[in-house]
Structure formats: C-alpha cells, structure tokens
Amino acid sequence: xxxxxxxxxxxxxxxxxxxxxxxxNSNPRQSVSPKEPRxxxxxxxxxxxxxxxxxxxxxxxxxxxxxxxxxxxxxxxxGGCLTSSSMSWAQALLLARGISRGWRGICGxxxxxxxxxxxxxxxxxxxxxxxxxxAAGSSDSWLAPPPPEPQKGPTKALAFHEELxxxxxxxxxxxxxxxxAVQNFGQHNVHKRGHVDFIYLALRKMREFGVERxxxxxxxxxxxxxxxxxxxxxIFQRMFIHYPRQQECGVAVLEQMENHGVMPNKETEFLLLxxxxxxxxxxxxxxxxxxxxSRFKNIxxxxxxRDLPRDPVDLAKLGLRHMEPNLNATVTIYQMPSSTDxxxxxDPAEPHIVGIQTPDQxxxxxxxxxxxxxxxxxxxxxxxxxxxxxxxxxxxxxLPPEEREVEEIPEEWNLYYPMQLHLDYGRSGWDDYEFDVxxxxxxxxxxxxxxxxxxxxxxxxxxxxxxxxxxxxAQIPVVFRLAGSTGELLAPSSGLEEPSPPxxxxxxxxxxxxxxxxxxxx
Amino acid sequence: xxxxxxxxxxxxxxxxxxxxxxSCPYLGxxxxxxxxxxLQKPVAASGRTSSQRKSEGDLQGHHQREVxxxxxxxxxxxxxxxxxxxxxxxxxxxRRLKDDIVNHWIGPEGRPLHEVLMEQAKVVWQFRGxxxxxxxxxxxxxxxxxxxxxxxxxxxxxxxxLLYGTLSSEVPKDGESGRSGYxxxxxxxxxxxxxxxxxxxxxxxxxxxxxxRGDGRPWMVNIREDTDIIQRKNQMYSYFMFTRxxxxxxxxxxxxxxFFFSNQGRIRDAQYQLLLDKISSIGFTLADKVDGPxxxxxxxxxxxxxxxxxxxFAYENSPELNPRLFK
Lengths: 522, 327
Description:
Chain B: It holds the Pfam family CIA30. The structure holds two protein chains of two kinds. Chain A is an alpha+beta fold.
C-alpha cells in the first residue's frame, strides 16, 4: 500500500494543476462534465499526461521490457509533452481519444492514486508489461494482478529494479553500466515511481560495479530524486520531518559517501537544495560532512596514497619508506621478479626482494661483534590502507650490560676550552619532562626487507645482497627465525619457532658460505 | 563523522557489572577484577565504538595463549570457603579505606603535594606484568554477534602488552545491525575502597603520550569521563592514532585539546573541550573496515605537559550548525 500511496503522491504532484482545476472530485466514479472550458483545459492536460504515459507503455510493449536506447530517446521526445507546451500530431490524436475516455480514470487517479490510463483496454496490458519492467509492482484494486516476473537468473527474489543492473553479466561491470542502469530508471519511469527503493538498491550495488568512491555517480544517484517536490513550504512542514522516507534515503546516500570517504561538492549541495530544501536532514548532514571532513582531511602524519601501486616492487618500496622514519635510508632492489607476463604474477622461483637500510644501521652493523649472531625475523605484517604486506628484519640482541662498551671520556687537557660541556639547564624540580619508566629496550635493527616469498632461500639471497654493502656481515653468523606472523617480535629465549635443526644448519651453512665466499674473493 | 554509529539503546546499564562482583566476593581482588558474567548481547546495540561501554565483563584478555579461559577456573582452584572469602574481602576494603584516609593527609593519591604539583610527566599505565593487564578489558563485536576476535597478552620479555586479533566486518544477521567490525581495549575504572568509583585527575597535563608499535592501522583513542550520570552514559571524547608500522617504537603524542566530543557514537555539533579533572577511562578502538589480522604493542601510556602546546580547543562551533550557541 505504501507503494500505492507514493505513486499517488507523485501522481498528485505531477498532475497538480490538473486535479486542482478539476475541483478535486471526491467521488471517483462521478464523471465531470466537459462543458466548462476550465475543466476542459485541465482535462486536456491530464489526458495529455495519460496519453504520454500510454504512449510510453505501448512503446515499451513494442520494444520489449527494457527498450533500446534509441527508442528511449524517441520516447523522451514525446514524453516531454509534460513540460513542453506544444504537442505533436500523434499526441493530438491520442489526446482526442483520451478525452473521450479518460474522465473517470483521471478522477480516480487523483484520489485513489493509481496511474492514469486505466480505462483504455490495451493500457492494462501495456501497463503491466512495463510495470513488470519498471515500477508498479503492487496490484491496484481494479486491475488484474500482474503476471509473475520472469526470473532470468538467480532463483531468489529480485528487488524491483534489480534487472536494470543485470544488463552485463558477462565481463566486468564498470561505471558505464552503472550509469546506464540509473539513467534507464529515469527514462523508463517519468514519474520516478519507486525511486527510494531504487536508490537503496543502487547503493547496495555500487560496490559490485566499483563506483563506491566516485562522486559523479553519487550525484547522478541523487539526481534520481524528483526535484522541488519534497521541499517544505511552510513552517509546519519544516517542523515535522517532511517526506521522512525520502529524507532517510537522502541521508543514506550521504552516509555511504561518508563511509567511503568521498567529499561532496557544490553540485551535491545544489542537488540537495533542489530536492530537499535548506532545512532538511540531508542538507544538515551535508553541512556536517563538509565541516568534519575538512577538519580531518590531513590529520594522518603518515599518509598512504589512496591508489596503491599494483606492482609488488613499487608497493614494497612504498611500504619500506613508510616504515623507516629516517630519510637517509636507501632502498635497494636485490631481485626483480623474473616473469614479465601481463598478469604480473611473480615467478615463484624468483620473487622480488627489496631492502632498506640507513647509514646509521650500516655503521652499527660494521661495529657489530662477530661472535654474536644476528637474526632474521619475520614475517611481520604491515597494512597500507587495505593491503597487507609482510616484511622481515635483521636484528641483533641487546648486549648484556657487561659487554656494552663504555664510552671513554678523554681527559680534559684544557679547562678553558673544554671538549665536553654539560650544562644543566633545569631550573628546578619542575623541569623534568622525562617519564619515570624504563622504556622497552630492544636490540638494534640493521635492515628491513620485503620479499615475495617468506622462505629461507629468498632471505638468504637478501643477506647475500646485503653483504655487498656490509662486508662485515660475512663474518657474522645469521640465524633465521621465521615464524608465522603472530605479530610481535620474538623473544630471544622463547623465540625459535622453527625446530632446532634448521637454525644451526642455517648457521653452519651461512658460515660455510661465508668461508667459501671469503675463499672465492681472496 | 568518521565514527557515525547506530543508536545505542541505553537500556543495558553497565552497573550490573559491579553487582555480580559484589555477590561473588570469592573472586576477590586477589584473583583479579573479573565479573563473572559471560558474553552478553546488549539490547539493540551495534556499531564500532559502542564497545567503549565498560559494561562487559566479558573479558577476552587471556592469561594463556589462544585458549579462552573461563574466569572461574584460574590456575588455582577456588578452595576458599565462602565465609573466609567474605572476611578477606571486607578486610581488604577496610585496609584500602585506611590507606585512603592516611593518604589524604599526605597529599593527593598518597604523594606529597609539592611532588604532585611539579610533576610534568606521569606514567599512568605500563605493562610490566600480568597484573597490569588486569586493568584492561578487551571487547570486540562478538558481543553483537560479529566475528572479530581480539586478545590481549604480555609481549616479549614482559616488557609490553600485545593486543592482537582479527577484524571481520561481516555484519551479524540479526536484522538490526547495519555495520560491524570493531575491536577495543578499554581500561577499567579506578576503584577505591568499597568499590567507590574514582577518577583520574590530569588537569595539570595537556598531552597524552603513548609508546606503541603498530602495523599501520589507524586506531581511535577514546576518553570517557564520569559516566554515572545518565546523560553522560554514552559520551566520550575521541581522536585518531595513526600507527606507522614497522619494527621501531612509535611515540604518539595527542594533545587533549584535539579530542572531539561524541555522544552515542556520533560527533555532535556542539563541541566543547575535554575537561581533565574527572577522567574515568581510556580506550583504543580499531574499526577501519578492513578485514584481517591486526596487532598493537603498547609499552606504556602516560600524560605530560607539552610546554609548546598552548591550544585550548581545536574545534570551533559553527553558527550554521548550532545557532543556539551564538545567540
């Protein structure tokens, strides 16, 4: 019934002048005499509406359910009779026919809210054919129940206009298809019946078509609303929520925009103004979105671009730069993915290896005591927007306190020009901004890398690549601690997730390799 | 607006939580402050930061690795007798009351006044042992029927806390939830003797300091004030915390002037600054609509005074949205 009422409302709004001049006949079956000229013009106009509608329906019947675009444009020309003052000869013919038949139907339509052309015999068929295709699903009281919708694909019940979105089941659905579907709704259905449900459906379908972040598509969707109809005209209408269902729908569109981080623009504002007026909830939400989006636009100190690179090497470089705060760091690509086919899938035998290291880390590695091993740990996860990449690190354990080297302070040989000056600038007890806590101390990290595969062979290649810039690494035993990504750095005591044979083997292998390399080089 | 949520039905009052606490005193303070209520689905509640309600006694903080233990079966068997437990509890409360009175004479919170006044940096929560984990409650959208999981455990070498889990934004099919997918870690409200609610007083400080190590996901920090008043039940102040990811520790400094006000999960038009004298709890929420595993390692949480930060409040009210404030 709600559908009926909506249609009735829209029918009312569309034929506003017509019904007004017909005197809003309360008795639907009472015929209005066509003698009075005022009523005659009104009925002419109403009949023109009905004829256009009928024309549309017949065209629909002829061309099939959804019609081809070129036929649609034809209909558009004739459908414009609503707003255009002049009418073509075909319309005049239909008009003459309609006048003789249409009185009762019109009166009935304005009060009962049914679509206009009920009396013409072909019209119910045409109406229902198009109804099955477009809007009027619920049965009117005096019409035959509509034929069951032909279920083409899935067996579950389709939403009303879902077939509009099923035009291109083959291939990828893209923006053009979506736009076409939305426009088809408008063309099909001049009075925009069922637009609320259609908009909800379109919002649900946006993700499939990949247009959920496209502002133009949202504006197009807002354009589906009939304009000027839902604007409140008096203070009482402004006080109460005028057309609540439509306002809710408008808010839902804006809410989906907000969820996907789309900033509305002036066109959206104008559309909302036209549709709902300034004192409506969608307009209020728009103002709030403008305010808060602009406030929170740049609060991320580590911004990640919205369009992440597809190439895994570029993604790895982006991720490594994202993680490393030191801008002096150098990114090195140790191995490019070998295959170059169009799908971009890396050959599993040769995944990409990209590493990063800062000069400080290089120096620290050079000073590292070769007696202590360094560990390759990983993989740890890093999220860049909605993509997760994994990285490994090369780190060493913290030196126990007794082995930490103490900086030797050379003796001052001149007190007038001291080499070290420690002036305590703290004024008193209130100048202490340090936290009274032992910060977590961990061993130094020497390098980070991102590789296509997480196995020991790939990481061994990384280590070999690192050895070119860090020759000291040749002497240092490397232990591989590759775990599943539980997320945290492994504790040195409980860390060895892999069973003990591999690490010593790895160690031995590394040492052997290093010795061999040593021999090779020397 | 980033935390637009659905309307929280306020019928579920979280004060039910202390009642079972009082009624099962054998789970006294020596065992840890757990409520014995299990996971409950609150009435018509959904959304992301609705987990900021500390109503849930559904503690997902685990002592052991991946096994969800029921609280009533910790490592020791509860062999204590009921009477003895009650007596212990009463003695404990009286002891705390005595401490409280004595401390009042020494100074605020038992520290001498000059020390408190001149303090510029204070560590509020640190994670150095299991008892530090007990001060936090972990929730996720499992309470509304979602599929996210979240666990809290001690990190490497007992030096940090690790909050990890999986986020899933699959909407629960209960006919009323539109969105789902959130995980949160909330601190417990500090309690005095006889479970009287206390609050933190941070009025001397102006910045929140966190030392964390994340995985690149954006988190939300929520601060709640005293929520006994029914109008304040769902109000909180929030701001975003962006983690960098990577193996390095990250220092996050959020001045309190940046926190925006929200009620029932929606940013309000009338904004006022966060007043620091009665802070109940702080919480971290993850709800960034990306499914997948996550982790956050926290070293400690502190507050300090940033002398360079002079801003009082970052958001001005707009006359368009709130004309009443400008009359």
